[in-house]
Description:
single chain; 468 residues; alpha/beta; 5-stranded mixed beta sheet; DNA repair; 4Fe-4S; deaminated base DNA N-glycosylase activity; 4 iron, 4 sulfur cluster binding; hydrolase
Amino acid sequence: MYGVVLDDASDFDEWRTKARALLLAGVDPRDVAWQGEGLFGGVALPSPRDIALPAVPRTFLDLAAVVLTHSDERRHAVLYRMLWRLTHGEKGLLSIATDDDVIWAHTCARQVNRDAHKMKAFVRFREVTTEDGSVYVAWFEPAHDIVRCVAPFFVRRFTGMRWSLLTPSRTAHWDGATLSFGPGASREDAPTDDALEDLWRTYYASIFNPARLKVDAMRREMPVKYWKNLPEARLIPELVRDALPRMQAMVEKQATVPRKKITPLQKAADDAPEGSLAALRRQAQDCRACDLWKPATQTVFGEGPAHARVVVIGEQPGDQEDLAGKPFVGPAGQLFDRALGEAGVPRDKLYVTNTVKHFKFEPRGKMRLHKRANAEEQAACRRWLAAEIDRIRPGALVCLGAMAAHAVFGASFKLMEQRGQWIGLPDGRKAMATMHPSYLLRLPDPAARERAYADLVRDLSLITPELV
């Protein structure tokens, strides 16, 4: 009988080295006492056989690395037996779901993984002030030796602070640059409280929802054995006891009236300039609410019938619009006109404008490349759009692109999911959003461009004759 002692019973590399030596010497698993006395029980191993070891599946090595952190003392022997079988005619061992060794190994792996999940969820660091600054210390009692595999998670999560994780089997320490491990510690080595825990308990109590309380499910996910290390645990019995009366009080309380949804355009209407549509156009030429006027050639105001029944809202002028002072006259405008024609909608019946009235660009040699207006620039310009709509009083709005859609519907609107349908607005109007023609021009795939163009025509065809 050969006795094998491991310095670190959970270390995969050390186990693999010893197991390989036994395997090369042809030692049967029944002749090995793992963690027995002496490196090999004082008995010299037979000379290694001059053979090449058969390849072992990577899945077994990964499984073994996890199982070795389990607390079952049989783990070294069972894994060596599985290794022996894999290299002695049972290559498909891991695929035999009913094999006792395979079942045992996977059961151990699940228990280790669950223990690691609980450690990530229920570790609570407490601040300790030292001469070198704050160090955060946590105490945890895992069922298995999982500190080595879980510590990198805390390094990623708390990279910017120094911490120590203490367990009975081993400890982990992060100094902000290096992760190191040490021997096990005791509960007395860790702090029991810190200055922030009262604040944390107040927060926990405030978010506790009695209507969603399921005690059995809570105890399954947060077993009582972990409570002693959780600062919020002392609140749980009282919160559970008071859950039913609190829930009844919530039911009996008068329902609150939901606040009326106000779109960005409605908010801008309060600050909209006064005057006729022609007066607005003149005033907009002198707008200095943001810096877009400085490099732009001119303000590009809306264009169309003063009492149009449909207002089409684009995003912002392009290079040619900036030079001409009119919306939708460049390549995107030409594509828009073509799509309107195929949809049977006369452009001269529409009032066409943009969310932003100045051309924002980035110089590239002699070219001026379009650049999207930021949120502040969009908000500064929205008062002009609100004033245009207020003077025209259309029955319907058509938004081209996400910028226009967000101005009308709000930031939660999802253009590609909600496009091509009329939606009622709080002010009684209806509105629809579709793709901006410039989006089609940017599509590199001709087939995708054709499909998107067909969708655009289909959406614009919803502007029926009775609307215009």
